[in-house]
Amino acid sequence: MLAKVHSCAIVGLEGAIVEVEVDTSRGLPSFTIVGLPDTAVQESRERVQAAVKNAGLIFPRQRLTVNLAPAALRKEGPAYDLPIALGALAASGQLNPEWLEGTLVVGELSLDGSVRHVRGVLPMSALAHREGFRRLLVPAVDAREAALIPDIEVIAVESLTMLVNHLSGVVPVEPVEHSQPPSSPAAGATDFQEVKGQEHVKRSLEVAAAGGHNVLMIGPPGAGKTLLARALPSILPAMSVDEALDVTQVYSVADLLPSDVPLIQHRPFRSPHHTISHAGLVGGGTWPRPGEISLAHRGVLFLDELPEFGPRVLEVLRQPLEDKVVTISRARGSNTFPANFMLVGAMNPWAVKWRLIETALCTAVNPGIGRWRCISDDARSVSW
After folding, report:
1. What pLDDT score was predicted for residue 4?
2. Cβ atoms of residues 297 and 340 within 8 Å
3. Strand pairing report for 283-284 and 289-290
4. Is residue 318 located within the same domain as residue 357?
5. At a CB cut-off of 8 Å and minimum separation 6, what does 153 contact?
6. Model pTM?
7. In CATH, what number is assigned to the domain containing residue 348?
8. Domain range spanning residue 55?
9. 122-131, 253-262, 365-374: which has the highest mean pLDDT?
10. Nearest to residue 136, comparing CAs of 170, 106, 164?
11. What is the CATH number of the domain that holds 45?
């Protein structure tokens, strides 16, 4: 018997529909997964079997073949555990396949049958809405995030047993209501009004915040450069709903969204250490993930002790500052991530470091369009 369940994969910042096809046939008991799965997907065989058994259900003792279509799209992560389990139950006659029509399913299964968090639920919910799905089954911890997208029924799934009872009508579960979370103060944020003194610097930052310009602060240690930079997001304009969803989507895909914060409503502030690599700054990996400049999207990227950053790390900032996006290309494809941020740099006014920053970085702030522009070609020949 053949059963089909719809799930979703994350490609860059967008979702892609994955059709989970489960077929049972006669033969020695086996469990095969095809469709370009990674190691985490292959390991779902053990998780699904144990979860179905511990949930009080019967795992089919037949030849079981799972196909994740389209086969050309690489499948990664444990988000396919729940759709594979539902497909196996439907293919063995324990669930009616019609109960899963118009439904998108994602979730990781633990061995006791409970459903765990998966990353990228917000873009998955947006994709389900665009593709016309009526219902979305997601882990309970991710339900508030999925419910940010209107006009789709979101079911918070706590366990496989609960989901089977809901689908069969034994114990129905009420959908999660769509509502925008109330605004709350950012954790650990510094308010600009709490900074005393440094009036000329504060005035400069106010002008930069009004025009979206980049900033370079030069001053001795203890002058308050870091404090002023951390306070800068508090005087930036409040984010609109579309901007908040834009930022939340980046953090959801990067799996950095706090469980108790379904929607990021405050401008992000990122301050990477100077030992960061260029891949960590702009994003990268075999399958590219967002870097610090994308995590600072719609917010502030603060580079403290600017001369300590490697020349290559600073050189890769040029194109994102101009285009407001960064495209990461690999042999298997390319992904584009947003990178619309304010760049704030800080350094000490020592003569040696100033000569290094002037020669090696060869940058200057352009107040007209608020970007950094290279004014010398000597940077490539300077040794740090």
Report:
1. 95
2. yes
3. antiparallel
4. yes
5. 134, 135, 136, 175
6. 0.85
7. 3.40.50.300
8. 2-167
9. 122-131
10. 106
11. 3.30.230.10
Residue reference for tokens 């209501």 = 177
C-alpha distances in Å from residue 98, one per residue of 3, 25, 48, 342: 10, 21, 21, 50
Contact call for residues 192 and 235 (beta carbons, < 8 A): yes
The whole-chain average pLDDT of the chain stands at 87
Whether 377 and 270 map to the same domain: the answer is yes
Q: Does a structural domain hold residue 182?
A: no
Strands 215-218 vs 342-347: parallel, antiparallel or unpaired: parallel
Pairing type for strands 325-330 and 333-338 reads antiparallel
In a domain, 203, yes or no: yes
Rounded (10°) CA dihedral 257, 258, 264, 268: -80
Do 20 and 116 contact (CB within 8 A), yes or no? Answer: no
pLDDT beyond 60 at 384: no
Contact yes or no for 126/15 (Cβ under 8 A): yes
Residue 151 sits in the same domain as residue 208: no
Do both 205 and 354 map to the same domain?
Answer: yes
Place of tokens 């908040």: 244
pLDDT digits (tens, 9 = 90+) for 84-123: 999 999 999 999 999 999 999 999 999 999 999 999 999 9
Which residues on neighbouring strands pair with residue 366, listed in sequence order? 371
Q: Which helix (H) or strand (E) holds 105?
A: strand 103-105
Radius of gyration of the chain (CA): 25
Rounded to 5°, angle at Cα 218 from 214 and 221 = 130
Question: What's at 161, amino acid-wise?
Answer: T
DSSP summary character for residue 3: E
147 and 199, same domain (yes or no): no
pLDDT of residue 349 exceeding 80, the answer is no
Give the H/E segment covering residue 345: strand 342-347
pLDDT, tens digit, 9 for 90 and up, residues 131-163? 999 999 999 999 999 999 999 999 999 999 999
Q: Which helix (H) or strand (E) holds 204?
A: helix 199-211
List beta partners, residue 104. Answer: 6, 136
Nearest to 161 by CA among 104, 109, 119: 109
Do 203 and 138 belong to one domain? no
Lowest mean pLDDT among 227-241, 309-323, 325-339: 325-339
DSSP per-residue codes, 272-305: --TT--HHHHHEETTTTEE-HHHHTTTSEEEESS
Instruction: Round to whole Å and give the CA distance between 29 and 41.
Output: 19
